[in-house]
Amino acid sequence: MRAxxxxxxxxFVILPSVLQAQETRxxxxxxxxxxxxxxxxxxxxxxxxxGEEFPRRLVxxxxxxxxxxxxxxxxxxxxxxxxxxxxxGQLVAVKRVGKPSREGPRTVAGxxxxxxxxxxxxxxxxxxxxxxxxxxxxxxxxxxxxxxxxPPVLPGGRGGxxxxxxxxxxxxxxxxxxxxxxxxxxxxxxxxxxxxFYYVTNPNHDDLYIQKHGVAVLTTQGAxxxxxxxxxxxxxxxxxxxxxxxxxxxxxxxxxxxxDGIPTPPGEEYYEPLSATYRxxxxxxxxxxxxxxxxxxxxxxxxxxxxxxxxxxDNHPATVTAQTMxxxxxxxxxxxxxxxxxxxxxxxxxxxxxxxxTPPAPPPGVNRDLQFYSTSDWQPxxxxxxxxxxxxxxFTDYRWITLEAPxxxxxxxxxx
Length: 416
What we know:
416 residues, mainly beta, 5-stranded antiparallel sheet, 29 strands
């Protein structure tokens, strides 16, 4: 079973928006497709540099551009998550303290001194257990959502705590008490009005070999809608990280894309039980299976979805990343190197991890690098870009952002 509670949060830090970019030069590449100098689309990752003053750096990358350092993180207790990065590059970073403190939470702002912290931070008093898997900022940076357990209310610190899903901005907080277990990342709608998530009613159902998750949506007004009841979910052990992949949204907010299991056809044998990608229509309230395989991503214009698909090759099970056209159902197997691609906001590019080692397993200390692709032909654009971290943080710690103009540096200030 996965651990849903990741520690006690008693100190919070809001860092500035991305810092002034350094001078860069385009990377050498034979590919004809180019990215403009004032590229609006960037993919944000974190690298770790041992032995330097700032061991962790937030870096943005774009096709045919050299990576640029956005932010340098020195405090080893600061928690970084892509779920705390809005689409403009503003980072809400959380500092985790291992021991409870008698003081209330403090907020340090990296922007103007007049900036008001999220009201939700006031809920995280000492002894509050917060699931860092669920702490997520909205794309517009206005809303914050988190699932947490309130402190015990009975004598001796026993019993009486409640599981609470809270959502709010800098002036209000709405709390929804529930009996679910939320251990997977949450996914905001593009217009920042709703957040979707997987949940289980029994913590054992979050096991990698069960994954019997329901699907629900919470609005910024506190309304909760169940899309798929957990009791009706089939489970998705085909891909152990299936529910760590964010639930997908159409740009219009009309459709929701998620993964659930399907029965294996009689007489068929695969490595793992099969899964499928489903689409929920908020207008018609109808759910339909739109593709086979674990959901990976959806095109911004809803023309296709990407899935991780099991199929038979020479009567033997095989796995491939597939592109399914939603209008026709046509399936295209993408090049072998594409495993977990993330599509850019414009839909023109995708980024994925590439191996920098020889299969079957990476040697100690070796990770995977970033590689950009053109979605017109799914061929690489530019050279691989070094990064730090493994596959486990790919779905949570890395994000596409959009910038209209290079950001200006902010002067750090402190708020009591």
